[in-house]
Specification:
Blueprint lengths: L7 H44 L10 H9 L19 E2 L9 E2 L21
Antiparallel strand pairs: 1-2
């Protein structure tokens, strides 16, 4: 019969090396997938920003984007009479700009947009 080397040390070494190979392979596949999709997503984002400057959030910080989301800001109001254009918190667009703004958060705002903090304009 051959020399069978059944020891605890060999078993643990084989388990450890197999686990390292498995984890390393998964990390390699996972990192590769993220890089490819991130490139496609950024190209799509740049293209949409060129077409619609009100959708450009490149100069807006992550905290401000989260604030927009927490306020439920949407580009198109579901309530016909309540839009950013007739909200007391809306900052109208400057003559050289296409988009307005909001007192509550930074970044471009659609006139047709809406958020949960909508306030009627008082005369």
């Amino acid at each position: 019969m051959g020399n069978k080397n059944y020891s605890r040390r060999n078993f643990i070494n084989k388990c450890f090396s197999s686990a390292c190979l498995f984890i390393g392979g998964m990390l390699l596949l996972n990192c590769r997938g993220k890089n490819e999709s991130a490139g496609d997503e950024s190209e799509t984002q740049i293209q949409s920003n060129l077409e619609d400057p009100c959708n450009d959030l490149t100069d807006v910080g992550e905290g401000e984007i989260k604030k927009r989301q927490s306020l439920g800001y949407v580009k198109q109001s579901a309530v016909p009479d309540n839009s950013c254009g007739n909200c007391a918190l809306y900052i109208p667009a400057k003559p050289d700009k296409k988009c307005g703004g909001c007192i509550l958060f930074k970044g471009p705002v659609y006139v047709e947009g809406h958020c949960i903090q909508w306030a009627a304009v008082t005369a």
